[in-house]
Amino acid sequence: MIIQSLEQKTRLALTTVLVAVCSSVIICCFTMWKCFSFISEERSQIYVIDGDIPFLAERTKMETTFLVEAKAHIQLFHHYFFNLPPDNNYIEWAMGKAMYMADATALRQKKALEESGFLSDLVSSSAVATLVCDSISFDERQKRFTYYGTQLIKRKSNTKRRSLVTSGMLESVPRSHNNPHGLMITNWRTVENNDLNH
């Protein structure tokens, strides 16, 4: 009778220990899983500090901002390529910035402008060329764009207004200091560049 009672007590103690150990393992695993998921969630959040106060900023994927970044890239490229004062150093700097944002088709157009004497004429006549963006049509599926703008060439004697239409395609490239949008303009060409009536 005493042996049987001792056996039951041993079995009960063993069961209690096993249940306690299993429960501890389950609780530990659940706690670790929650901690890792919490850390992962925190790493995906960005905080911006204004003075001593942190503000939570949202991180977005490129797909959600692609249209905005594509149009900004196209507009910035045209700004560098066509907004030119009568300053050789600035023209070289701006054209250099534009060349980081497009493929060899932009370099061909730059050489054509140099060969036609347009760039040297700007400097010699103290003319200022500016470009105003009218609109940008962009097909997200094909990544094809058409840029519509009005070019103003201001000389001391007169101001010439020209309509400018260019087209090309975009492809994704790694982001860099010189290409912050991570996009490259390809197959770029001037479709129209005609004088406008005053």
Task: Describe what is shown at a glance.
With about 200 residues, the chain is of the alpha+beta class. Helices cover about 45% and strands about 30% of the residues.
Descriptive notes:
The chain is of the alpha+beta class and 198 residues long. The protein folds into two domains: 2-57; 62-195, VirB8 protein (Nuclear Transport Factor 2, Chain: A). Helices cover 47% and strands 30% of the residues. The protein is rod-shaped and about 120 Å long. The termini are far apart.
What string, H for helix and E for strand, traces the elements in order?
Answer: HEEHHHHEEEE
How many strands in all?
Answer: 6
Residue-averaged pLDDT: 86
How many domain regions?
2
Q: CATH homologous superfamily of the largest domain, by name?
A: VirB8 protein
Low-pLDDT windows of residues? none
CATH architectural arrangement of the largest domain: Roll
Q: Which structural class is indicated by helix and strand composition?
A: alpha+beta
Largest sheet strand order: 3-4-5-6
Sheet having the most strands: 4 strands, antiparallel
Beta-strand residue fraction: 25-35%
Backbone CA Rg: 32 Å
Distance between the termini: 118 Å
Q: Kindly identify the CATH topology of the largest domain.
A: Nuclear Transport Factor 2, Chain: A
Tally of helical segments:
5
Top-tier CATH class of the largest domain: Alpha Beta
Choose one word for the global shape. rod-shaped
Q: Tell me roughly what share of residues is in helical segments.
A: 40-55%
